[in-house]
Amino acid sequence: MEFFKKSVGVALVALSSIAHAEFSGHKIQIRYLFPEQSTQYEAPQTAVVGGGVEFTSVCDGNFNADVSASSITLGFNTSSIWNNTSFNGPEFFDVEGTIPKIYGVTVNESTSMVGLDASRISFDEDHIWVNWNGLNFNPSMKVILDVQFQPPKPEPVPAVSISNAGDGALTVNWTAPNDNGSAVTKYTVTGVPGGSCTTEVVPPATTPATSCTVTGLTNGTAYKFTVVATNANGDSVASPESAEAVPSADLTFVGAGPNITLAGGVVAAAYSQTLQVTGGLPPYTFSVTGELPPGLALDSATGVVSGTPTTPGTYSFSVMAMDSAVQAELAAKALHVAEQTFTIVVTAAPVVQATPTPVPALGGAGLLLLSGVVA
Known about the structure:
Elements: E1 11-17, E2 27-33, E3 45-48, E4 55-58, E5 63-67, E6 71-76, E7 80-81, E8 89-94, E9 102-107, E10 121-123, E11 127-130, E12 136-137, E13 142-149, E14 160-166, E15 169-174, E16 186-192, E17 196-200, E18 211-214, E19 224-231, E20 234-235, E21 252-253, E22 260-261, E23 265-266, E24 271-274, E25 277-278, E26 285-290, E27 296-298, E28 304-307, E29 313-322, E30 337-347, H1 364-374
Parallel strand pairs: 1-13, 22-30, 23-30
Antiparallel strand pairs: 1-6, 2-3, 2-8, 4-5, 5-6, 7-12, 8-11, 9-13, 10-11, 14-15, 15-18, 16-17, 16-19, 19-20, 21-25, 24-28, 26-29, 27-28, 29-30
């Protein structure tokens, strides 16, 4: 099968990349397609772009391809007319998807192959196709295609963490990514199941802050967050998710103040009072510092002070309440602590005195009778 009419000569076709050229060090593949774009004429060849000619024998040895950082040059050993079929020409392909995406290919005004215009060029993000079917070529001709690569967006934010869990709010912190040569102008934080915040450049700063506080969250609900960086060329891929974190109101004792006086106790009488807290993340734990009235004890799980007092007096003590500790599934869970001073006054048991039994008085007859008995 002939794809051109043979004659002798040399022609060059050069594909030159201008903005953000990134061929060097990447793998590129060349295939020759004939007689239609979906038909491969010969097996593809792949090479890493570097020094020298990457492809020395293409299309039955009729041309070679030299790829540099910003151009692809094709050298021909014949002069002829390419057969006029559906497609007759080379394809270039980014094998590993590492070259910046292509978003424009234009025919340079220095092109001298008659008839090779924009209608002969097609491309997508990873491919360029040149269809020179039916065209003449000879040693004096050249074709230059300018390739515009997509300017690089920022790399993904590498790490996200949570701090300052508060009442309906969490502070999200992250590490600035590589901006790929174009300064990051904004960060967007997105939470699951909800919540968001953004940071932008605020002069005189030249970069946006790498933390922001997400408000309006539901206390007691676990949240995860991702961060997207934006520069003049677009948005990065979303960062890895943060660990879960749970917002909550500050932990406080009900009636908190310098001192809370609990109900008084009585020696030898059963006593029970519950220390109440609000906020934080239940379950809570309680611990006591100082002197509880003898006979009373604090339940560390319930916050109940109970027992039977044995000694009267005024007793002051401090209680610390702590909300739930870090758990595996809530690695950044809030940890709140509250301390409060309490006083209990224990009084002695009341003294019960016996009441004497009254003796009935004797009337006159009774006295006469009694005197007779005595006599």
